[in-house]
Amino acid sequence: MTTDFKLIDVSHSIEHGMITYKGLPTPAISDHLTRDASRTFYESGTEFHIGKIEMVANTGTYLDSPFHRYPDGTDLAGLDLSSLANLAGLVIRHTGQNRAIEISAFGDFDLKGKAVLIHTGWDKHWRTDEYWSGNHPFVTEEAAKFLVDAGATLVGIDSYNIDDTSTGSRPAHTILLANSIPIVEHLCDLDKLPESGFRFFAVPVKVRNFGTFPVRAFGIVQ
Predict the structure, then answer these.
(1) What distance in Å separates the CA atoms of residue 115 and residue 11, rounded to the nearest whole number?
(2) 148 within 8 A of 179, measured Cβ to Cβ
């Protein structure tokens, strides 16, 4: 059996004790019910494992909904699947350049209705001190406004934060989420995706009154 498409995973795996964002608690992964203990409930030869994970929402590769920034914004449960799944994807290459991602980075690309994924290469520092150093690439306020005006449906980045974290201001989050454009941060392996001609998926769990959650982000390449 052959297929005419390829699945490209662009999300990080979550592990016990893994740091995603410096200063936030790390995930604690443990057993709720071990296989050995489960044998007392089932017939001989039958066993199950039930795991338990405690983590903050901003762990691994995750998606921000408007509720993350605004108390009256759409939460994870309210997001329309059309803003998260089967989106026409576009990769913007911004590797080895200035940290600030300006309007010029988007050139003459048609962004309307697209999942715009910004490939900076910062994921090569994942789980190192450099990743959390604050020297990461970020989207400027003017570029965020441009993404809104250009009609982007979703914006993702393989960096530590879509905003510059040297100050307490978060203009990219503020602007994009105010316009119902979900943000996916901490992507990886965007070099494996083509510039265009693929479909993108980043679907979180459907949780009410919750703004952020990890996703299994991937592209389908024909």
Answers:
(1) 15
(2) yes
Segments of the chain assigned E as strands: 6-9, 28-33, 50-54, 62-64, 87-93, 100-101, 114-119, 138-139, 154-157, 183-185, 198-201, 212-214, 218-221
Q: How far apart are CA 147 and CA 150, in angstroms?
A: 5
Helix (H, G, I), strand (E, B) or coil at 138: strand
- 62-221 is classed CATH 3.50.30.50: yes
HSE at residue 220, side-chain half, CA atoms within 13 A, is 11
Whether residue 121 is predicted with pLDDT greater than 80 in this model: the reply is yes
What number of CA atoms fall less than 13 Å from residue 25's CA on the CB side? 8
Residue reference for tokens 């010029």:
104
Handedness of CA 13, 188, 84, 169 (dihedral sign): positive
Confidence at 126, pLDDT banded by 50, 70, 90: very high
Q: Would you say the C-alpha torsion 21, 127, 57, 137 has a positive or negative sign?
A: positive
Distance from C-alpha of 204 to C-alpha of 212, rounded to nearest angstrom = 8
Compute the average pLDDT of residues 33-58: 96
Largest CA distance in the chain: 65
In three-state secondary structure terms, 109 is: coil
Question: How many other CB atoms are there within 10 angstroms of residue 65's CB atom?
Answer: 26
Contacts of 70 by beta carbon, 8 Å cutoff, 6+ apart: 177, 178
Joined tokens for residue 157: 């980045």
